[in-house]
Amino acid sequence: MIRFEHVSKRYSAGHEAITELSFDLAAGEMAFVTGHSGAGKSTLLKLIALVERPTRGQILVNGQNLGQVRRRRIPQVRRGIGMVFQDHRLLMDRSVFDNVALPLVIAGAGREETARRVRAALDKVGLLGREREAPVTLSTGEQQRVGIARAIVVKPPVLIADEPTGNLDPQLSAEIMGLFSEFHQVGTTVLIASHDLPLIKRMGKRVLVLDHGRLIDDFRPQP
Amino acid sequence: MNRRQANRLKPVVPARPPAPPRTPLGSSLRARREQHLYSLFSSLGRLAARPWATALTLAVLSLALAFPLLFWLLLDNARDLSGSVEDARAISVFLKPNLDADAANDLAARLRARDDVAAVELKSPAQGLEEFRARSGFAEALKVLHYNPLPAVLIVSPRVVSTSDPAPALVAELGRDANVDIVQYDAQWRQRLGAILAVTQRGGVLLALLLGLAALLVVGNTVRLDIQGRGEEIAVMQLLGADNGFVRRPFLYSGFWYGAFAGVLSIVLIGLVEWALAAPLAQLVASYDRRFSVHGVSATVMFAAVAASAALGWLGAWIAASRHIALGQPR
To answer: Any chain A CB within 8 A of the CB of B326?
Structure first.
């Protein structure tokens, strides 16, 4: 589902964020990317979301070679990828409902369908009935759940998250990870960048370890 | 690798985004309509969210639009006025004051006989005084006079050969006649007025163009600031898969609303000006015995002004949005 083949990314400043990275994530697999800050976790996710292009190598997402995606088609590729951010990046001047509905509005879904799917997504993250509230009135953990609902509302085949628990205490973090685990169980491919090693260990999933842009370990749990 | 690429061309691809996009034509049209409705209302909401900034922008825009409109109104009235100067091709020939009636009749007969004269009307001093009294409102002043100071006048209508001929030879010839005091050729005066109007009209068009450009820049700048203020929102939308069209649309609608509202406001301004001028204008027209009339802006012109203004707003927003959203997009 996500496949990196000898991918390197050098920023224009000369700093090489990722070097010769190769890995393959099967459809429906869940994995973590970890490493110290600056190891290239965020760059890896940006490459998948086509925010950045690799300097060398090929990336395939969803059976599609990202190197062949023209600029005009980038939005369409992104609609197939759910994204969760550390700072959730909700639009603070809009209600919870409007935030979660945004990907559907972008895709041009009808009003009834939008309402139905937004409620379903909010139900999954445990925030049903809070749709009229403004994001500022929610706690940090709840805001992150809204962010997750927004990422999964179009049922994307791929879900990527950049430090989704970075701002949360351990208990909330475990809850959020539990949510990702649920989406993984219904067949979504999930890739999460995190440096919370104890939490990652408890999840018992595959872990890609990056160090200075290189893959130094690909740990797979024994079944 | 090649096998994978070939796969993409097959009609059934394992796991492409299963979500809403790429549906039949009917629902994709409906999707567009939904998106447009969304943009329409969200742009209105944005304007309403900052009432003072919006009001200020609208004030500037409506002034920029009202000026050319007002200018056009003045010009249109002036053109009507020049059209109502009747019988402009006629030559008024003022005869020497001491000339007797027979000599005047003689001259009229001679003129009638000419090939380049269509008609000659003789107005005796008595007729002239009567007319003057009736038309100019000087009746009281004229009563003071013990004698009639007016000369006999011949109204000569030349036979028109070419419309562009500024002053026929006839005018010069009449001027040389010993019995003639003054030759007044209205067409010359009218031509000058026409030339003045043409210059003013050109000036008006230039003014309208300049102020239109100013309106374009005002909308463009407002939208540019709006885009910069919404950088984060735009970035999020782009990450969620919004294309440039989607991101741009609410800004285009804002531009449209700015233009449309400013157009309506400028019409209101013109209305106020008309209202303020109505009483003194009515007096002026009355003092001229209602020989001319003034008119306001017609409904057609109002509609055209609002439509043009809305189009201008859209265009200004489009220029700003195309430039700044393209720059702000990640690769």
So the answer is: no
